[in-house]
Amino acid sequence: GFSMTFDTQIDRRNTHSSKWDMMEPLYGVSPDDGLAMWVADMDFRPPQAVADSLARLTEHGIYGYFGDDSKYLDAIAWWMKHRHGWEVPRGGIFTTHGLVNGTALCVDTFTEPGDGVVLFTPVYHSFAKVIRANDREVIELPLVQNNGRYEMDFDSYDAALPPHAKMVILCSPHNPGGRVWRRAELQQVAEFCIKHDLLLVSDEIHHDLTFGAKHTAMALIDGISDRLIMMTAASKTFNIAGGHSGNVIIEDPNLRARFAKRMQALGLSPNSFGLHMITAAYSPEGAQWVDELLVYLDGNRKIFDAGINAIPGLTSMPLEATYLAWVDVSGTGMSLQEAIDRVQKRAKIAVNHGPTFGTGGESFLRFNIGTQRANVERAVAAMQEAFSDLQ
Description:
Elements: H1 3-7, H2 18-21, H3 23-27, E1 35-36, H4 48-60, H5 70-84, E2 93-96, H6 99-110, E3 116-121, H7 125-133, E4 137-142, E5 144-146, E6 149-151, H8 154-160, E7 165-171, H9 183-195, E8 199-203, E9 228-232, H10 235-238, E10 246-249, H11 253-265, H12 272-281, H13 284-309, E11 315-316, E12 324-328, H14 336-346, E13 349-350, E14 352-353, E15 364-368, H15 373-386
Parallel strand pairs: 1-13, 3-4, 3-7, 7-8, 8-9
Antiparallel strand pairs: 2-10, 5-6, 9-10, 11-12, 12-15, 14-15
């Protein structure tokens, strides 16, 4: 099994790791005695097949243009069918430089400056960044908490939606809340988009990382293929984000042609390293590795949630997906800044700050538990110590 692998500590310091080598300049937490729990990548090596694919490339020693992508497209189609019951349209698979780039291309291709783009907040911070950088307006429709779990409230959204809204970006499963949207909820999103004539971009980057709850690909929801742009990637699943490759998958021929033309206009084509890694990852060996990863992450999640929820005033939202825990500090009565100081200066953990995720994130911190179990246990102990006066 892989459990040995997941438990193996791998020192990532001084390897140009964003997560470990930028934690001190950005958060004031030294990698020498602190923990990096912010950027969403994991401290695990991907399945051996991925390393082998790069080893073959290195052994051959020539790094030319990538040609004949049939095996790559086959691998994507196989994965989506076997893991998600989704028959992918072969001619509609585009490769972008990751899904932040994919999001940016969707905003750029399908909307105009001044248009509104809808986000259900709090949500992954890069969406709003990209929308604003493209001179579009972010329209925040806040999620509501029902018994400590996020839900969408379409009655209020119908009333709040301004006329210049043209697109919705859905995060499914949801980062940072860890929600796996149920089929009925996705149906409501579809109906909302049809009713208001909105394009729907569904970012499903965390779709493989679920715990017990069943993820439904938005492409399986009826009646929206003419307004749907799907985004998937192997990067979160297999911890290969440095390969900077993601897939934008479009069924509708008209939307597909517009997207293809825009990519051509910008001269975009993928790097071969990402394609080699993805082809290797989307395989039976990759599938077995993911199954074992999920068992390991589930264990991390249980330890983290139990440890954090034992601290008076702190609440870790129950995760249905992702390896990103969303912790509410409002119950302590302290300001977010005081909580951040305790986490970063006393517990020595670098974390993402809730306000960057938009409306609804004001009292939250996001912790990445995609790391060795010993690190999760260490983080819990450090947090309990940092907030010990509340016990």
